[in-house]
Design a protein that fits this description.
alpha/beta; TIM Barrel; ten-stranded mixed beta sheet; two-stranded antiparallel ribbon; 12 helices; 14 strands; globular; binds iron/sulfur cluster; transferase; methyltransferase; iron-sulfur
Length: about 350
């Protein structure tokens, strides 16, 4: 968990990990090893996740000595809000600045069933999906688990003012979560903990572009969280055009890994299928897709894509979206069309960050 971090204010390079990267048991272990009582761990967790403290000094029931020790060993990650946009449908999009100056996006979506937050796992992304603005500047660095946790805490703090809570988490923001696997798993454990934010496993969804070895590893973890695959094409040729990762991890092998996951966990898989006008949205694509997922315990999420200024793709007309859906249904496939949110803000993944980067380089 040791990381080299640059403090933006002091420009000092530190090796301090974020305290949000620690599970309660790990924190208790650290306290005991440093001559402190184990029960202090729960007190600290309370400050972090219930009182949502933003500094160690605030932790008034800890001795000054312990507060200093904590500050010497850890960073209490606070994200600076660089931009905040609110849509007319209540969707909130945040551009947060990390303490090395990099920026990340986090989105809060309002649903009937609760408030869902979409978190980022990497600064940029190296996967190179042709429809995605997040990958334009490449991968800068992985986020530490605590930096992912801090996004949830920060948005929860904004919701506190409205007496609401973050009830659902989707790991679908900037980055490929399976490319930062250990931090993502640590993040899951921390937000799922009763002593922390207590977000139920079944309320958490992780999505991958298809890093096959990690899918097998993830299946073996036997977690109760929801699992989604960014599919976007019904055959390997088209998928390689849309998502270069398919050249390394081919569709037939991906489907084998998905089958393994379903068998191992007994859980249903979701396939995310973005509809790109004239590219993958024809009836024959829907028929091919139905054949591909036949017999699998799965669900298909159709996503009418937003126009991304940096890319050439255009929206699929409404009637075509319904035709595509109907074809899948006629083949007995479980399918829904994702409700669009944040239409009047930079809602597509990476758009806000890409816009800010462009403005910075002007
Ligand atoms: S869609 Fe996801 S995996 Fe693909 S480039 Fe964008 S952030 Fe990376």
């Amino acid at each position: 968990m040791e990381k080299t971090l640059i403090d933006n204010e002091t420009k000092e390079i530190t090796q301090k990990p974020s305290i949000y990267s620690y599970e309660l048991q790990e924190l208790e272990k650290w306290l005991v090893e440093n001559g402190e009582k184990k029960f202090r761990g729960k007190q600290i967790y309370d400050w972090l996740y219930k009182k949502r403290a933003t500094s160690f000094e605030e932790m008034s029931n800890l001795s000054k000595d312990l507060r200093e020790k904590l500050a010497d060993h850890f960073v209490l990650t606070t994200l600076k809000t660089a931009v905040q946009q609110t849509s007319s449908d209540g969707t909130m999009k945040f551009l947060f600045e990390l303490h090395d100056g990099y920026t990340i996006e986090t989105v809060l979506m309002r649903h009937e069933y609760g408030n869902s937050i979409c978190v980022t796992t990497q600064v940029g992304c190296r996967i190179g999906c042709t429809f995605c603005a997040s990958t334009l500047g490449g991968l800068k660095r992985n986020l530490e688990a605590g930096e992912i946790v801090a996004q949830v805490v920060k948005v929860q703090k904004a919701l506190d003012e409205q007496g609401e809570r973050v009830s659902h988490v989707v790991i679908m923001g900037i980055g490929e979560p399976f490319d930062n696997y250990d931090s993502m798993i640590q993040f899951l454990k921390i937000i799922n903990s009763d002593d922390g934010l207590n977000i139920g496993a079944r309320h958490i969804t992780v999505s991958t572009s298809g890093i096959i070895p990690k899918i097998y590893q993830f299946a073996d973890e036997k977690l109760q969280i929801n699992f989604a695959i960014s599919l976007h094409a019904p055959n390997t040729e088209l998928r390689s055009r849309l998502m270069p990762i398919n050249r390394a991890y081919k569709l037939p092998d991906l489907m084998k890994a998905v089958k393994y996951y379903i068998e191992k966990t007994g859980r249903r898989v979701s396939f995310e299928y973005g509809l790109f006008g004239g590219v993958n949205d024809q009836v024959e694509h829907a028929e091919e897709l139905a054949k591909l997922v036949k017999g699998l315990k799965c669900h298909i999420n159709l996503i009418p894509v937003n126009y991304v200024p940096e890319r050439d793709y255009v929206r699929t007309p409404k009637e075509q979206i319904f035709k595509f859906e109907r074809t899948l249904k006629d083949h007995g496939v479980n399918v829904t069309i994702r409700r669009e949110q944040g239409h009047d803000i930079d809602a597509a993944c990476g758009q806000l960050r890409a816009k800010e980067r462009k403005e910075e380089t002007r």
